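Report of the visiting student (M.T.), summer placement. My assignment was to run the structure pipeline on a short list of targets and document each run. The first record concerns DUF3806 domain-containing protein.
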Amino acid sequence: MNTPMQSNAQTLADYRSTMQEVAEAYLQRHWDEHLDEGQLFERTCQYLVANEVPLFMAQRLVYLAMSTLTPPRVTVGVDWANHGDRTAVVLIDSRDGIHHVINRRLLPERFLAHAAAQ
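After the run finished, the structure tokens were exported:
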């Protein structure tokens, strides 16, 4: 038989777990919008606080949510075989496999030299 104290502790644990899941979902939806994880942390805290989570708890929940998620690894590949034009380079976004044709003059020489060497 659960005592009222045990029931309250379980309810609080369920609440924290649910709010951490909400924070994780928010982080996953908005991760690509931020170059700085600090901005994402603040924005996620603000989201939880707007949903009536106390600030001290929101900060802890966002910290825990960020520590469980692996940030999406974004790499850009160069597809030298796909485009024969000497003025453009085809870049491949690893997240979705979409090919982007970019004018060579917009890319740094260091990038072009490194990509050509590989």
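The chain has a mean pLDDT of 82. The longest helix spans residues 4-30. I thank the supervising group for their guidance throughout the placement.
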